[in-house]
## 1
Amino acid sequence: MAVPKRKISRAHRGNRRSHLSLQRTQLVRCTNCGAMIRPHTICKACGHYRGRQILRAAND
Ligand SMILES: [Zn+2]
């Protein structure tokens, strides 16, 4: 268990916790079909990644 050497002030504690908030998931547009996808992932709608077809198209 951590034993406090000195009391952390509310401001000091708040400054530390200023980086702890949850971030909204970042989304970018697929360059092939324009769907909103997470960066650095294959597009689920068309199966493209970095301009290349990776997955087979859904209507194949
Ligand atoms: Zn796409």
## 2
Amino acid sequence: MSDHEYDVAIIGGGPAGATPAILLAQKGRRVVVLEREKFPRFRIGESLLPYSMGAFDRLGVREILRQKAMPKNGAEIATACGTRQVKFFFKDGFRLKHGDAFQMERAAFDQVLLDRAREVGAEVREGVHVERADLRSDGVTLHTNEGTVRARYVIDGSGRHSILGSQLGLRRPYAHLQKFSCFGHYEGVQRDEGIDGTLTRLVRGEGFWFWLIPLDAQRTSVGLVMEAATFRTRKLSPEAMLDAAIAACPLMRERMQHSTLLGKVQSAGDYSFRNERFTGDRWILTGDAAGFIDPIFSTGVFLAIHSGERAADAIDLVLSDATKQTRLFAAYEKNLGGIMDKYLRFVTAWYEPQFIEVFSTPAKRLQLAAAVNAVLAGHVGFSWGIWWRMELFYLVVRLQKKWPLCPRITERISLEV
Ligand SMILES: Cc1cc2nc3c(=O)[nH]c(=O)nc-3n(C[C@H](O)[C@H](O)[C@H](O)COP(=O)(O)OP(=O)(O)OC[C@H]3O[C@@H](n4cnc5c(N)ncnc54)[C@H](O)[C@@H]3O)c2cc1C
């Protein structure tokens, strides 16, 4: 039984835990990270966003990531029937500060961040499972499989099962985003040459979509996202479902015809939710532990790192002056909640059939595509130029339901039986 005293205890060693661990340890705070698994461990979420680049500099990991990762310069969105394709490059995004990003296997990415946390002085304890937290006005006690840990503040970065969110009953699922996903790593997936080969490719059918993410010279991450209800009706294993969906789409069949599955197909479901609050007296939720919207725009790791940075900055100030907690935690709630609202609206629009019709009809004159591109890169600060263009984009998607302002896609592929 241990009874240590720390400034901050962090639950989880993923990006939402390692980011604040690095920043707080760099400030000289006494930090412990409690991670239930032994790293490296598998995680899905390999496509990163340009607006994490600034954070990678601050964390001191950009150079090591650059050596280990694939560059990512943008994305391609195509229809499953192969009749419509649109590529966009972050360098063309509306007044973007960061024009590129990384694609990287998460086991290696998360290991880089956790190693960095150790290097700058955080105590990292792997194989330690936090079972529950006693939250009191004078500090926090975490109960683990290895005894108790005491700290002045706690950051919960424990991922979608959110230890504190569950304990406090804060979880609210998004009823309209009940999805199921199956995914695996493959060798031999067809790839374009040059810069086009670095793009995340999204292939969209009726009520489902695929991702193809290049991980290195050989391996590609391939995943399918579909309605959870359709998956249940099909009564297939995740691997058989992924194979059946690939077989149903001409574009995917072509790209996957010479590919081989490496390891097993894995799956995830019931992942979209938001906790009612992200902070309370002496605690903050970061990353997926605060909420997760949907994998479509690869915002998960970006939000884990962004919230980890904001949480570390707030707690560092509160450690020096406890009277600032109410104001700084409220600002954290507002910032993270506002970003989640933005992406939720965008994700909800994506699942409208008209989204792809509008998105794949570039309107260069108004720079609508450039504004959408900027949001996809992680530009979440307020910019008037992006705001009005996004409002116009949503309006066109709404109007497109009634009037064909953009050419209709008539060849629709569905996974329903
Ligand atoms: C199908 C799918 C595809 C995705 N694709 C992308 C993508 O392309 N790009 C992207 O950016 N994001 C993607 N995501 C999202 C991404 O996976 C997450 O947003 C990201 O992993 C969040 O990081 P995190 O640190 O909050 O949580 P995690 O990465 O889940 O880390 C949480 C850590 O906490 C530990 N933990 C949990 N419980 C305890 C406990 N009780 N005690 C101690 N430790 C504990 C876990 O072992 C884990 O290591 C995808 C998600 C899904 C479901």
## 3
Amino acid sequence: MSGLLIRDTIIVPVDNEKKDKLWFTGDVAIEESKIKEVGKNLQGKYRDFEIIEGKNSLTMPGFVNCHTHAAMTMLRGYADDLPIIEWLSEKIWPCEEHLTEKDIYWGTKLAISEMVKSGTTTFADMYSFMDQVAYAVDESGIRASLSRGIIGKDEEKDELALRESEEFVKEWHGKGEGRITCMLGPHAPYTCSPAYIKKIKKLANELGVGIHIHLAEALSEVEDIKSRYKMRPIELMDSIGLFTGGHVLAAHCVHLSKEEINILVNNNVGIAHNPQSNMKLASGIAPLPILLEKGALVGLGTDGAASNNNLDMLEEMRTCALFHKVSTMDPTVLSAYQVLKMSTREGARVLGLNDVGTLAVGQKADVIMFDLKKPHMTPLHDPIANIVYSAQSADVKTVIVNGKIIMKDRSLITMDEEKIIFEAQRLGEDLVKRK
Ligand SMILES: [Zn+2]
């Protein structure tokens, strides 16, 4: 078999804005890692391709989760209902100090299995022991953009973190048949000094990789930065040149002045919007409709499982649309298609990936199939509305990444789900006792 042919399926390619082309029925041919052709009756042309029957299914690009800390699955449900600073400093950070390589490996595997089972084919991760994350990504077949999280401490430790980040990029960028890409990950302006972030930016430019950072997440952060530097977080980052000469993925961007919105738009900064995390930590409401109107590059993310508490992009899409409709008291803001683009094509651009996120010919074959034969998916007046407003993660039946099937009929092919759950439960219980 030299390829895959998904036959007679409803296709949502997310590659155009034409009303009559947003969805249609046809076939998708995949050769090696790429989309070879999208059209009608392709079976005669690709006779030796393995057939995947697509009747009663919807086929679309896989979801791109633009911001998470995958192994935080280990702290799922461990600390909830707290203000962000207390949540971080009293619960999360003390626990994270005791994380081991094993915790990160199995926690990431747990996250990947959850993500694949809910249709995510790419994720952007920032955490520690990133080699373990990279092993888990490599083995599972998913696509990921990985950053070693950096928190400023003292001169010696800061220098070590830079060297480790550099080694990580040199070791992993482009590995896993090109599925793994890397960025440098200064945590935030309140945990890294401007001088340190400048150093990190310089190294990122030398290595030819982007930057993944948290920006303007909470009001307390804005106040803290203003009192320390007489500038707001995004103004401060602009003043040190963070946004020039290389891609930046900025998570959250909740509290923004008009000037800061312009800075983000003019520099094409990739924004990861995480509505459920922002709601759960009561961080605030990002001005998403204004950002989109101004042409900002925005994708969707779940953030870590400790502040969500799952990694389900279908839930995130639905929440995103509903959250902004009610917060603006305007049901016309954020159409289903806008949200769908944010979770696929735009999300890929937020990660700096141009060959992922649509079903256009030549794009990487990261493809998911939904089972439409469900009561909550019937009738099918508008498949895009059904995906954004009605679908559940259990409807995702097949997942293909880089042209390889990694889930078929809801069974994970490259991962041992039972073993992952067993190890994650055991290590998770042990982790909170170590604190
Ligand atoms: Zn985060």
## 4
Amino acid sequence: MQKMTHRITPELRLLMFEHHDYCSSCGYKFKEGDTSHSGYSKNDEPLYVCDDCDHLLEETAVRNVFMPRFYEIPPDKCKLWRYMDFTKFVSMLSMKGLYFARADCFQDIYEGAKGTLKNKSKWDQFYLSFFKELIMNPPDGSEVTYTDEEIESQAEKLLHDLEKGGINGKKRTFINCWHENENESEAMWRLYSSYLENAIAIRTTYKSLYESLGRNPSIKIGRVKYIDYQKNFAGVNDSFWCKRNSFEHEKEVRAIILDMHHLEKGKVIPCDLSQLLEEVFISPNAPNWFGELVNDVIDKYGLSIKVSPSELIQEPFF
Ligand SMILES: [Zn+2]
């Protein structure tokens, strides 16, 4: 078996990220526990392959045990919406980027939570046993020389670190939220713009969002899972991909970026707005002049984007 070189070029990293579930050579769909091999062909082309295609690698950079993603990626063409007031829209145009808010600044107090406090002892028990098991069965098969007390206290420490990591994670996780919907949503106008006169909705697709953010493997984009925290816990790695069932109407798709060093309450990630913004919709409550203003501002920033009135105000017939 080839020795791993750990040489990972940006091209290989992108290939591993985008092909995550499939062998880039034969298309085999990886199953949990399979080995993925990443490296380069004779011509130094990046490859991310399965066991059967392993022979194509002239150089193996890394081998990994395959784990499914912690989040589900929506289909390329899935429509995503963001409802906002005019100032936020202008700020987005002027900054040429998307604002990612720090997770601890969200109103939802369960943002990043693993479960409800009343169920915490179950969670603690589970992880204490899990850690004890790990300590008593080291992966390299070496002999365990700890006393029962030492195992107990090491497991307690790991549990404490896990909890600390969870709390700190809120200050290191930055999120940008979207609403997945084929259509414009009356409820979202209410919720995110309070049905303001000066509100707009922007529409894009998953693919445009991903590409306008530069196909960046550090930015994960996926669907939020809605779970019943009375009965379930979020996983250690997917707590920022879970929300309470009572938020299900949001049908949220979010982009998440981790930053260990950024201390502000949010960060702006550069975005190609001409690619992102497929159409802009004007609030159903807006006066006529507001649509012209939105068009003017878009012009001033050198963009060419279709601006449409809200479909909610189209006249019915009976
Ligand atoms: Zn293959």
